[in-house]
């Protein structure tokens, strides 16, 4: 029975690809670098994905940026592009006005910042819009599957449990046990200066434990250090965050709420206090990140089940030429 359902689903997807393909073909006579099961991928879109890979080769398992490796990965990204559009249309989804507005803003910002690169790489603003629209569709499709009321909805208690175990909120004041020498190198402070900083933080901790607020203590400290007096307020970090020293997350997670303590490493010192906000109060701000962490592998598997059925036809010499054009911009 499962096999029959799978075959039926594949038939529907192939029909959707054919429909999506006809839509692509009707968008003008721009050169096409690739044919994915009938869906035409323009030179510009293929070049865009080459650029995505060359921007961060290790993330795509590409060492050294060899032309054949990069173009192979770009073909995979183009298959995903077709699969996302196919699934999105097949489920009858439509971009909201708000999403369309957000896409337009993202395109304007990206084009404004990287315009020279895109022009040199022969990538138009229209193609950038197509690529970012596909990313928005991918996110919307993901939420359609896994968020509230979705086909593969994650239980709310499971989501809350994940958030509680992987995020922590806190107030903090931080100091440094390092400085730059005359050559611009980061070096450790002398022991006497290190001791002065420790004493200062111990005194601030005493004020906090006696009823002082983080905002008051921070403003006084900032004034003495001649740094911004704008208090950072409550911060929330993920367990995998590398913005704080090793061990920081576990230390803060283990604190009792609103009980400030000192966390110290070789290079840093913090006064930190875990806040008492409930997971339910904070979850909405991190909902997509949590859903993605919990189900991205499952979503990737769904896309893979589709893209594995695709065939890709291309002129390898053309793909190499596009690679050379884009790589020359890096």
List keywords for this structure.
59% helix; 11 helices; alpha+beta; Chitinase A, domain 3; single chain; four-stranded antiparallel β-sheet; 2 domains; three-stranded antiparallel β-sheet; 330 residues
Spatial gap, N to C terminus: 51 Å
Taking the sheet with the most strands, its summary is: 4 strands, antiparallel
Shape: globular
Count of strand segments = 9
Q: What share of residues are in beta strands?
A: 5-15%
Please provide the ordered H/E string of secondary-structure elements: HEEHHHHHEEEHHEHEEHEH
Give me the number of helical elements. 11
Instruction: Give the low-pLDDT segments.
Output: 1-29
Helix content: 55-70%
Q: Main sheet: which strands, in order across?
A: 6-3-8-7
Q: Structural class of the helix and strand makeup?
A: alpha+beta
The whole-number mean of residue pLDDT values reads 89
What count of domains describes the coordinates?
Answer: 2
Radius of gyration: 26 Å
